[in-house]
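User: My advisor asked me to double-check a structure prediction for ABC transporter ATP-binding protein before group meeting. I don't want to rely on an old file, so could you generate it fresh from this sequence?
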Amino acid sequence: MRFSPAGDPGIPDDRSATRYLLWLAGRHPFLFGSGIALGIVWMVAQALMPAAVGRAVDAGLAHRDPDALLTWGAVLLGLGVLQAVAGILRHRCAVHNWLAAAYRTVQVTVGATNRLGGALHRRVAAGEVVSIGTADIEHIGSAIDITARGAGSIVAVGTVAVILLDASVPLGLVVVLGVPLLMGLVGLLIRPLHRQQQAYRDSEGRLTARAGDIVSGLRVLRGVGGEPVLSARYRAQSQALRADGLRVARVESLLEAAQVLLPGAFVVLVTWLGARFALRGEISAGQLVAFYGYTAFLVSPLRNLTEAADKLTRGHVAARRVVRLLRLTPELVDPAHPAALPAGPGDLVDVQSGLVLRPGRFTALAASAPEDAAAIADRLGRYADGDVTLHGVPLRDLAVATVRERILVADNDAHLFTGPLRSELDPHDAADRAAVEAALVAASATDIVEALPDGLDGRVAERGREFSGGQRQRLRLARALVADPETLVLVEPTSAVDAHTEARIAERLGAARRGRTTLVCTTSPLVLGRAEHVVFVEDGKVVAEGRHDELLAAEPRYAATVSREEER
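Assistant: Sure, here is a fresh prediction for ABC transporter ATP-binding protein from the sequence you gave:
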């Protein structure tokens, strides 16, 4: 019944939408149970008020008995106080349950995205994840919240039915048979609403993903003249989403109308029958007053029940989306019994390419095809499976967390996040200010910090959009240097900077990483010339090794690759 990959061992193993909602409810059993109990007390106290009023009319007013009138008046007051107190506490529990369910969903969603890691964007659209955190959490929270009022309404309707059956079997049967009939009529609207909401939610996720793609690639689109085409497609998809929304609204409007019309018609029917029974002397005046009170009261629980059907449907649709994300499994998982890794640096070997990284050495890798260098970096960091060993131990035999602690791969797909720049450069707050400043110097990024009004305390906007491409690249390099991993793999860390800045970075990088294992994947002569050891890769295999000047003289293919870089 449990599974651990999603980050919480208590999530149901089959991860169905219904079981997920039950799991959320069970996270705080005391408050969830208290909310239901208080909801029952709250509604039953209201259901008993018409009975107290009816007894006050019959025993007090009809028989002119002041004591009986005071007694039933006190009972009515007590029921009012009980209803008020229970209602306040129920609302308090309901708000807690709403927030707990919504934000617990955020936690498991973030845990699932972290677990998927680099495979996330290949397995699910970004818009899907965003929609879970913006729209779905509200529906899931509301589904948990409505249970208290829904349970109270069911018990209250049952209580009223028992009282009416005791007083008048026909009227009692009207309630006993009429309420299920009303709920059945509402249920006829639930299924199409469920279907339309699912279609709308799918369209919303696709449109959000498209909007994200357009925004992130806006400069490129404008450069190649593709903005009008993508804008037209976005408008067409937006109108399709609007049409889906109108279909959902059409069904929802019918449901809202049913919430008013059906209980209202039910009240009219019971009141009319009660009046006829009173005229025939089958019930007393007090009972007629009580019956009218019951019918007026029944509007509230019946609306609660139709609202519960609506919100539980929405919550089920939203939970299905969350479960779909939780069902995704990462491409790389920990072995059942992770191997132990010796402490300290060791040889890092990529068997497939023949690359051997010696500990403590500044190595550069030049590949005739950039994708070969990226593939090797992914294997070294265990972002892709491969025959890679550290200290002679295969990386696939190690826990992924252990690999991440020992080997850091920094490429140009990494993002800058919103927040203070210092926290962005040192997210774990593990380095002192001197280490951060030294990393900025090595990455030739001090001018970026100096340009900010608050320096390291300045805030970074989303994805660092206030910085140029070269500035973002230098800040990412500084962040990798601050982390100071045992083995650092840099993929094209200077591709977006000018030649003067690149020369400064190449000159300082070796000193900043002295004594630590470093691999730089690049074809820049400025960086290659500063490396202690250069490896040349062609067709995914190491074909030559040595110093930069040696390879230029002895390996024509290497010289051709580097020359292309110089020509650019």
